[in-house]
Specification:
- The complex is a heterodimer of chains A (401) and B (335).
- Chain A has helices at residues 2-19, 96-112, 127-140, 156-164, 190-205, 221-237, 253-267, 281-291, 321-329, 341-357; strands at 84-89, 115-119, 144-147, 168-172, 183-186, 210-215, 242-248, 273-276, 314-318, 336-338, 366-368, 374-378, 382-384, 389-391.
- Chain A has 401 residues and is of the alpha/beta class.
- In chain A, helix 3 (127-140) packs parallel to helix 4 and helix 5 (190-205) packs across helix 6 (221-237).
- Chain B has a single domain (51-330), classed as Orthogonal Bundle (ABC transporter involved in vitamin B12 uptake, BtuC), CATH 1.10.3470.
- In chain B, 74% of the residues lie in helices and 1% in strands.
- Chain B has helices spanning 3-12, 15-25, 27-45, 52-77, 85-100, 107-130, 136-155, 179-197, 199-209, 211-216, 221-244, 258-268, 280-299, 305-334; strands spanning 173-174, 177-178.
- The longest helix of chain B is centred in the last third of the chain and has 30 residues, at 305-334.
- Chain B starts with a helix and ends with a helix.
- Classes of the chains: A alpha/beta (401), B mainly alpha (335).
């Protein structure tokens, strides 16, 4: 008899789930999966539907700019224009990503001619080992230290000691506490990434296309920040884009695959694109679209291409080139949004040179960085690398990380 | 199902009704009915749920979980548990993927090796549980940490790419259904027959139900437990190949919570967490039901947060029913 009770309870449990349908209608003010922090959407590109409407000038970022909040070295020798010796201590060495930043540093050093930079660091992303490496270089004596911190708090004391010993300190990729370094080269801001993602999606599905989002979790800080900025930017520039829904996929490629399949089945031809919000969700979503044979027939290999452009589904996201290489090579994914780590390392050396030469001071609002042009000062003591880099079929072969 | 309910039904009902009643009163029956109800409710709300592609996707995504749940069911029926299966799938998938990208390596080797390494890991766990009498939860907890840590050390978190096209077994289909679905069906039927009709299969129930009684009837619990953990390793090995061959890249970190999904499938499938009862058919049906709930919720716009609540409810209800049934049986024996 208890079995009958069980079946009854089972059915009630299922019916219960159906009863809650109206409770989770999508919120129009704040898209599901977005956070509720203030947003700062960037300017619309030329020709975007929202570009014409933005008649009144946007509030300039300078108006709300933070005071310089970096630290300063004590009694650093004046080496303006002279040869300087730098050491670069990344999170770890021997991986593609930091090989790329290191390459950019060598390119900058070669261009400048009066900089010598060596990369040295732990073979594992371990803060204790990283601190030991920096200690050693303080003792040994260098003119400047470049770092990408394994831990923002853990690295700060040793960097402050470097500043006290008259050594210049500039961070990139992963920050310390602001007063423990003079400047930090910030690879990407949330609004920049959001703009690049929406622009890439619009390039594929048009300004009135529809898309869904596969995120890691509704509360993941980075993903929800991006979704917030994407929503704000799309509201401003592409108000006719159709936002279908956001689904979660944990940090699990398989779940991202399953969730994307479900979205494909649910919306059919009514869905033109999918955002894979994390480096795990993106390949999972791409596999689902490829295995359903829904990649854009213009570019894709025959075995993954959709029968016609109408039914094709675009996939856009943020990930590393290695992770997305199979999909970019078979044409299923047209653009992978990220920054360029070669440029990041390159910029870090130019910033260090400018600090030593006295051309980048706490009062500066921009800095000259060789082939990258002028880079903006943001958030008090950070240098923004510029708009994100988009990896495509044409350039992805140059990167290995 | 107890003898009393069956005989009571026999006395009071016509033949067709009796058969229906037997079906409904089993765990498999309850799961089938729930699945049917789900299909009707969600299918009515959104007919696209019933599209052939969606049904096929639900079955495909159930397959690797269901195959692992077969092994887990045997382990739980024997009165143990193995929480290292998620980590095992991660490690075995990585081994398989790494082998597939070795130049000149025949593809069948990368499919076969997990089926050998899986039972070897199972044998270690089984030995510690059966011969050294360390509780299975402790042994498999240790095994999970070793495998997870070892995987990160060995791969450095780097994903595997560029597997050859012929490696991708799980992406093939046959007569309109993906290949993993056939693995799920065939292995479920074979394991069900083995555990129901062969002496070595029945011995698992005997050991899980009452170790002393099993010993007295000439069964060696140690041998049975070794066999169960190695069988589990084999199922996990097959599951890991289905998992690894599904994608263009293999995630080198262990998917978190995979072991809980597998254990949930077995428990909701009616495998008693106290050992001794349950079937792999129930476990497979439960896997499909849970996957269909997760899929169906998106179709009717129910937040994913409810999925966990529903799963949790199903576990608690199943365990509660099991306890009530045992208590009643005990009362009957006493009375």
């Amino acid at each position: 008899m208890s079995k009958k009770v069980f079946s009854a309870i089972l059915m009630v449990a299922l019916a219960l789930s159906v009863a809650f349908v109206p409770a989770v209608a999508q919120d129009e003010v704040r898209w599901v999966g977005a956070d509720d922090l203030p947003v700062s959407p960037l300017e619309c590109p030329e020709g975007a539907p929202g570009a014409a409407m933005a008649e009144e000038p946007m509030e300039e970022p300078e108006a709300a700019a933070l005071e310089y909040n970096g630290g300063q070295p004590v009694g650093a020798p004046d080496l303006a224009g002279q040869e300087i010796v730098l050491v670069d201590v990344p999170k770890l060495i021997g991986i593609g990503y930091f090989n790329a930043t290191s390459l950019g540093m060598q390119q900058a050093a070669e261009e400048l001619g009066n900089v010598k930079v060596t990369t040295d660091g732990p073979t594992q992303g371990d803060i204790v080992q990283q601190v030991a490496f920096i200690e050693q270089y303080i003792t040994q004596g260098v003119n400047g230290i470049l770092f990408a911190a394994n831990d923002p708090v853990g690295i700060s004391p040793v960097l402050r000691r470097a500043l006290e010993s008259g050594i210049h300190v500039v961070g990139y990729d992963a920050n310390s506490e602001p007063d423990a370094r003079e400047w930090f080269v910030n690879q990407a801001e949330f609004n920049g990434i959001a703009k690049a993602k929406i622009d890439s999606m619009v390039a594929e599905i048009g300004p009135e296309g529809s898309f869904a989002i596969v995120t890691s979790s509704f509360t993941a800080p980075n993903q929800s920040r991006w979704i917030s900025e994407m929503w704000a930017y799309a509201q401003k520039c592409y108000p006719d884009l159709k936002w279908l829904e956001t689904v979660e996929s944990a940090e699990d490629q398989n779940l991202a695959f399953q969730q994307t399949q479900t979205l494909l089945n649910k919306y059919g031809p009514d869905m033109d694109g999918v955002f894979g919000m994390s480096s795990v969700a993106f390949p999972g979503a791409a596999d689902a679209v490829a295995q359903a044979g829904l990649c854009s027939p213009d570019d894709a290999a025959a075995d993954v291409a959709a029968p016609d452009e109408e039914s094709a589904v675009a996939i856009v996201g943020l990930s590393t080139p290695n992770q997305m290489r199979p999909f970019v090579e078979n044409g299923c994914v047209e653009s992978v949004v990220l920054w360029n780590p070669v440029d990041l390392g390159y910029a870090a050396v130019y910033v260090m040179r400018a600090v030593v030469d006295g051309t980048l001071t706490p009062e500066s609002t921009e800095v000259e960085a060789g082939r990258l042009g002028k880079l903006q000062v943001v958030n008090g003591s950070e240098i923004l690398l510029g708009p994100p880099f988009v990896y495509t079929q044409d350039n992805i072969a140059d990167f290995d990380f | 199902m107890t003898a009393t309910t069956v005989s009571a039904a026999r006395q009071s009902a016509p033949g067709w009704f009796k058969n229906l009643r037997m079906l409904v009163s089993g765990q498999e029956g309850a799961l089938t009915l729930s699945l049917a109800l789900l299909v009707i409710v969600v299918g009515t709300a959104n007919p696209r749920f019933l599209a052939q592609q969606n049904i096929s996707d639900i079955l495909l995504n159930s397959s690797y979980i269901a195959v692992a749940a077969i092994g887990m069911s045997a382990v739980i029926i024997s009165g143990n548990i193995d929480i290292s299966v998620g980590a095992m799938i991660g490690v075995l998938a990585t081994i398989s993927g790494q082998l597939s990208i070795v130049p000149g390596m025949p593809v069948w080797i990368s499919w076969l090796v997990p089926l050998i390494v899986g039972p070897m890991i199972g044998a270690v766990t089984g030995f510690l549980v059966a011969y050294l009498r360390i509780p299975a939860i402790v042994v498999s907890l240790g095994m999970m940490s070793i495998l997870k840590g070892g995987l990160i050390l060995a791969t450095g978190g780097v994903w595997i790419y560029n597997m050859p096209p012929e490696y991708k077994l799980a992406q093939q289909s046959f007569l309109g259904l993906p290949v993993p679905v056939y693995f799920m069906l065939a292995l479920t039927i074979l394991a069900a027959l083995w555990m129901r009709y062969s002496p070595s299969g029945r011995a698992i129930y005997a050991v899980g139900g009452n170790k002393e009684a099993a010993l007295l009837s000439g069964i060696s619990p140690r041998v049975v437990l070794m066999r169960v953990f190695m069988f589990n390793g084999l199922m996990v090995g097959i599951s890991s190949v289905l998992f690894a061959t599904q994608f263009s890249s293999i995630q080198s970190t262990v998917p978190s919570g995979l072991e809980l999904t597998i254990i949930t499938s077995a428990v909701v499938g009616g495998v008693s967490i106290l050992g001794g009862t349950g079937t792999v058919i129930g476990a497979t049906l439960a896997t499909i039901l849970l996957r269909a709930i997760g899929n169906g919720m998106i179709f009717i716009n129910v937040s994913a947060y409810w999925l966990q609540a529903v799963q949790g409810t199903l576990i608690l209800v199943t365990v509660l029913i099991d306890l009530l049934r045992r208590r009643r049986q005990a009362a009957q024996i006493r009375g």
